[in-house]
Design goal:
The complex is a heterodimer of chains A (358) and B (481). Chain A contains 19 helices and no strands. Chain A is mainly alpha-helical and 358 residues long. The radius of gyration of chain A is 30 Å and the shape is extended. By secondary structure, chain B is an alpha/beta fold. Chain B is globular. The chains are: A mainly alpha (358), B alpha/beta (481). The interface between A and B is large, with 52 and 50 residues.
Chain lengths: 358, 481
C-alpha cells in the first residue's frame, strides 16, 4: 500500500470518528438546552394552570349568575388568556345544553375573543385552527358566518370539515343552501367525515342534497351525500337512492343500498333484491342486510335463495334478515336448518344465536 | 501432489490482507447502518410534524360524539394471565370509544385465567355464528358477559402460538377493524380514537401502528395510567429509551417512506377483510405481527391495489418490560428469530422492483440490520481490539470502530429524545429528562452489546429451528391503586 493510500485511509478514519464525536456532542448540547427549556415551560405551565382555574371559575359563575353579565363583570384579560378561554369554553360547551351554550358565547363576546379566534383560525397550529373554527360556529353573527364559508372548500380536509361542522351549528337557512350548493364545486373531501357533517344539517337540506347528488359533483361528495341521506332518514330521498342503487360505481351502489335500508321504504325492495345477485360480495352483503330492515315479504324467496350463497357473510345476513320476519322467518329458518348443506348450517347457527338474544 | 499444491496455494495467501479487508467490511456495515439511521431522523421529524395529533382534542371529541366512527374489535390473546387479566379487561372496557367489542381469547391456559373471567364478568356460554375464514385450534366454548354486552370470551384449545389465538379472535369478530392487544398491556383512554382516525381519513388505509411504552414505574389507577414515571430498574430504563428510539424514529421514518414493515403485536389496528385475504396470522413463525404486515404489502402489491399503512405516534399502549436479563434475553432472541424467519419466508420480495420500496429498500435494510449486522458487529467487538493490540490496525481505525459502534448511537438516541421533547412532551419532569439523556449515552456501552449477543443467539436458534416462546414473568411492576 502506498503512502498516499495510507494517508487517505487515515484521513477517512479520522473524519469518521471526529464527525461521530461532534454529532454526539452537538445533540447532547441541544438536549441540555431542551432540558432548560423544559424547566422554564414547567414553571410557566404551573402559572397557566392556576390562571385556567381562575378563568374556569369565572365562566361557571357567569353561566350560573341570576343577573345578566355585562362588560363590567369581565376580568382584565391579557393576550395569553385567550387560548385558555378558547379551550375552557369548548370544554364547557360540550357539557351544556343549547341555552347555556348561548350564554357562554355571550360572555366570550364580552371578553372580545373574536379577533383572537379569527386570527388563530387563519394562522394557528392545526389543532388550534380546528378549535377556533369550531368555536366560531357558535357565534351566530354574519361576519363569523362569512369567515367560515371561506373555509368550506379548504384544501386541508380537516379544516374543511371543521368549517362545515361549525356551519351546521348556524341557524340561517339561506346560508345552509349556499353551503350545500358549494359542495358541487368541491374537489377533494373525506367521505365519512363529510357525511357526518351533512347529516347534522338535518331534514331541511334534503332537497338541496338531492340536487347536488344529481349534478356533476365529485364522486366522494356524492357518496357522502348518499350516506347522509340515509342517516337523515327522509323518504323524499328514496326515489333518487333507488336510481343510484343501480349505479355502475360500486361504492355509490353499495352506499345507496345501505341508505335505503336505513330509511326502510319498502318500495325500494325490488332493486335491493336484484342486487342480492350482484357479482360483488360487498353489494350482496349489504343487500341482504338492507332487506332485513325493509321487511318486504316479497323478498323472502330471494333471501332464502341467498342462504346458499358462496360467501358466508351473505348467508349469515340473509339468515339474520329472514329471522327479522319473526314467526314467519323463524319457521322458514327452522325448516331449512335440518338440511345438511351450507344453508342448513347457517340457519341452525343463526337460530341458536338469536334465540339467546344476540 | 495435489495436497502439496494446495499447501502451496494456502501459504501464498496473505491472511493479514484478508483480515484487514474484513475489518474494513465490519466498519462499512456499521457505517451503512448508521447512514440508514441518519436518513431516518429527518424523515421521522417530517412525519411527526405532518401527522401529529397533539393539541387536536376537538377532532377526537367530534369522533367520539359522531355516528360514523368505525366499529372495532379488540382481540386480547391470553395464555396463563391470571395475575393481570381481570384488571386489563376492566381497563379495555373503560376505553373511550363508542363502538367497541372486546374479544378475550383464552388460549388453553393452565392457570385460572378463564375462571377469574367467568367470576368477575358473570360470563355465560352462548352460541355465535362465525365463518371459518382463517385457521386455528378448536374453540371449546364462547361466552358473553351479563354485565358488559360488548365483552366476549373465547375458550379454545391451545394452538401453540399467539397467532392461533389471534386468528380465533379474528374469525369471531364482526367489525371492519380489529386491534390485537397483549393481555398484559394497557391502552390509553383515547388510544383507539387516535389510531382509527387514519382509517377514516384515508379509505385505502389497511393497517395502523401505535406507540408502545414501558409501564414499569408508571402509576395505574382503575386500569388507566394516571402518572407517567421512569422505571427504577436499570434494565427496564434502558428498554424505555430503546422503545422511544424504535417507535419515534424508525417506525415514523418507515411510515414516511411508505415502507412500514412492522406494526407491533402489542398494539396494531388492521382491516379485517384484508387480514382474512392474507389468511390471518401465520403460526409457523414467532414474528407473526411482522409477518402479517409484510404479507399485506405483498398481497396488495401483487394485486396492484392502492393501499397505505401508517404509524401514529400519539396513541400509546403501555406494556410491562422484563426486568431480568434472563427474561429480556429470551424476548430478544425470540424477536430476532422472528425477524429472520420473516425475512427468509418472504425472501422472494428482496430486490424485486415489483415490490417497490418494500422490496428495494425495506428488505435491503433488513438484510443489513437484521441478517448481516449482528454477526458482523459481534465479530467486530472481538476482532478489532485484538488486531489493534497486535498493531495490525492502527489507533485511528480503533477510534473509528468505537465511533461507529458506540458513539454514533448516542446521537441517534439523543435526537429521538429531542423529537420526543419538542413534539410529544410525554416526559413530565425535567429530572426524568436528564435521566433519559444519560441513558441515551450509557446504553451504547454494554446494553447494545448484550443485545447483539442475544441477536446472534437468535440467529443460532433460527438455524436450529427453535420454535418456543419462552416465559414472560408478570410482576405487575406498575404502581397500582
Amino acid at each position: 500500500m502506498s503512502v498516499s493510500d495510507i494517508a487517505s485511509k487515515n484521513s477517512i478514519l479520522e473524519m469518521l470518528w471526529l464527525t461521530s464525536l461532534a454529532l454526539a456532542l452537538i445533540s447532547s448540547a441541544i438536549m441540555l438546552v431542551l432540558v432548560l427549556r423544559h424547566i422554564i415551560i414547567q414553571h410557566r405551565k404551573a402559572k397557566i394552570f392556576a390562571r385556567k382555574k381562575q378563568l374556569d371559575r369565572f365562566l361557571f359563575a357567569a353561566i350560573n349568575s341570576p343577573i345578566e353579565i355585562d362588560s363590567k363583570a369581565i376580568p382584565n384579560l391579557s393576550s395569553g388568556d385567550y387560548p385558555i378561554l378558547m379551550r375552557s369554553a369548548l370544554n364547557i360547551i360540550r357539557s351544556l345544553n343549547g341555552n347555556d351554550a348561548a350564554k357562554i358565547i355571550k360572555i366570550l363576546n364580552l371578553c372580545n375573543i373574536k379577533p383572537y379566534l379569527l386570527l388563530t383560525a387563519q394562522k394557528g397550529a392545526k389543532g388550534k385552527r380546528i378549535q377556533s373554527l369550531t368555536l366560531l360556529g357558535y357565534f351566530s353573527n354574519k361576519d363569523s358566518l362569512q369567515f367560515l364559508l371561506n373555509y368550506v372548500n379548504d384544501e386541508d380536509i380537516a379544516i374543511q370539515i371543521s368549517a362545515l361542522r361549525a356551519l351546521s351549528l348556524h341557524d340561517s337557512k339561506k346560508h345552509l343552501r349556499r353551503i350545500i350548493k358549494s359542495l358541487t364545486n368541491s374537489h377533494k373531501t373525506n367521505v365519512i367525515l363529510l357525511a357526518d357533517v351533512l347529516r347534522r344539517f338535518g331534514d331541511f337540506v334534503v332537497k338541496d342534497l338531492i340536487d347536488v347528488l344529481n349534478a356533476k359533483s365529485n364522486t366522494d361528495v356524492k357518496i357522502a351525500i348518499i350516506i347522509a341521506l340515509g342517516d337523515i332518514g327522509s323518504l323524499e330521498a328514496v326515489d333518487d337512492l333507488i336510481k343510484f342503487a343501480a349505479s355502475s360505481n360500486l361504492d355509490i351502489r353499495t352506499e345507496s343500498i345501505i341508505s335505503i335500508g336505513k330509511i326502510g321504504d319498502q318500495k325500494a325492495a325490488p332493486i335491493i333484491a336484484e342486487n342480492l345477485q350482484h357479482k360483488s360480495a360487498k353489494v350482496r352483503i349489504e343487500s341482504a342486510k338492507s332487506l332485513g330492515n325493509l321487511q318486504a315479504e316479497s323478498t323472502l324467496p330471494i333471501l332464502v335463495e341467498s342462504l346458499n350463497d358462496k360467501n358466508w357473510w351473505v348467508r349469515f345476513y340473509a339468515a339474520q334478515s329472514i329471522y327479522k320476519f319473526q314467526d314467519k322467518g323463524i319457521a322458514i329458518l327452522k325448516s331449512i336448518s335440518s338440511q345438511e348443506d351450507e344453508a342448513g348450517l347457517i340457519c341452525a347457527e343463526v337460530l341458536a344465536e338469536f334465540k339467546e338474544g344476540f | 501432489m495435489q495436497l502439496d499444491s494446495l499447501f502451496s496455494i494456502l501459504s501464498d495467501i496473505n491472511y493479514i490482507s484478508i483480515i484487514i479487508f474484513f475489518s474494513w467490511f465490519i466498519l462499512a456495515i456499521g457505517l451503512i447502518q448508521n447512514f440508514i439511521y441518519i436518513l431516518q431522523l429527518p424523515a421521522a421529524w417530517i412525519e411527526l410534524r405532518k401527522y401529529s395529533q397533539v393539541g387536536d382534542t376537538e377532532s377526537n371529541w367530534q369522533m367520539l360524539t359522531s355516528d360514523v366512527i368505525m366499529p372495532i374489535s379488540l382481540i386480547m390473546p391470553s395464555y396463563n394471565e391470571e395475575v393481570t387479566i381481570v384488571e386489563n379487561v376492566h381497563s379495555m372496557l373503560s376505553l373511550k370509544y363508542p363502538d367497541i367489542e372486546i374479544i378475550v381469547v383464552n388460549d388453553g391456559s393452565k392457570d385460572s385465567t378463564l375462571q377469574l373471567l367467568i367470576d368477575e364478568f358473570k360470563l355465560r356460554p352462548i352460541t355465535r355464528a362465525y365463518p371459518r375464514e382463517v385457521p386455528h385450534a378448536k374453540i371449546k366454548q364462547i361466552y358473553s358477559s351479563k354485565l358488559h354486552h360488548n365483552l366476549i370470551v373465547i375458550d379454545k384449545e391451545n394452538g401453540g402460538c399467539k397467532a392461533d389465538a389471534c386468528n380465533a379472535g379474528l374469525n369471531i369478530s364482526r367489525n371492519p377493524l380489529f386491534c390485537v392487544v397483549d393481555a398484559d398491556s394497557t391502552l390509553e383512554a383515547e388510544a383507539l380514537l387516535n389510531s382509527v382516525r387514519p382509517f377514516m381519513e384515508d379509505p385505502n388505509m389497511i393497517a395502523v401502528g401505535g406507540t408502545v411504552r414501558i409501564l414499569n414505574g408508571c402509576f395505574v389507577k382503575n386500569g388507566q395510567v394516571v402518572s407517567v414515571g421512569l422505571p427504577k430498574n436499570l434494565l427496564a430504563l434502558m428498554q424505555y429509551m430503546e422503545y422511544i428510539r424504535s417507535f419515534l424514529m424508525s417506525r415514523l421514518a418507515w411510515s414516511r417512506w411508505g415502507t412500514l414493515k412492522i406494526i407491533s403485536g402489542a398494539f396494531g389496528i388492521f382491516r379485517r377483510d384484508i387480514t382474512v385475504e392474507v389468511n390471518g396470522f401465520a403460526s409457523n413463525t414467532v414474528g407473526e405481527d411482522y409477518e402479517l404486515v409484510i404479507k399485506m404489502h405483498k398481497h396488495m402489491l401483487d394485486k396492484k391495489r392502492p393501499y397505505s399503512m401508517r404509524y401514529v405516534p400519539e396513541p400509546v399502549c403501555w406494556t410491562e418490560a422484563p426486568e431480568t436479563l434472563k427474561v429480556l434475553g429470551n424476548q430478544r432472541k425470540r424477536w430476532h428469530r422472528g425477524a429472520l424467519e420473516v425475512f427468509f419466508m418472504h425472501k422472494d420480495m428482496f430486490l424485486r422492483p415489483k415490490y417497490g420500496k418494500i422490496g428495494m429498500l425495506a428488505f435491503v435494510s433488513s438484510l443489513i440490520i437484521d441478517v448481516i449486522g449482528p454477526i458482523v458487529e459481534g465479530i467486530g467487538y472481538f476482532l478489532i481490539p485484538i488486531l489493534w493490540f497486535f498493531e495490525i490496525l492502527d489507533f485511528n481505525f480503533m477510534l473509528a470502530f468505537i465511533a461507529i459502534f458506540f458513539i454514533f448511537g448516542i446521537t441517534i438516541s439523543t435526537c429521538t429524545l429531542i423529537f420526543e421533547e419538542m413534539e410529544l412532551r410525554r416526559v413530565k419532569n425535567w429530572h426524568d429528562l436528564v435521566k433519559l439523556s444519560f441513558v441515551a449515552i450509557i446504553e451504547n456501552f454494554g446494553y447494545r452489546q448484550i443485545n447483539n449477543i442475544w441477536r446472534i443467539i437468535g440467529w443460532w436458534q433460527f438455524i436450529r429451528k427453535k420454535s418456543s416462546w419462552g416465559e414472560m414473568i408478570r410482576t405487575g411492576s406498575a404502581q397500582k391503586n
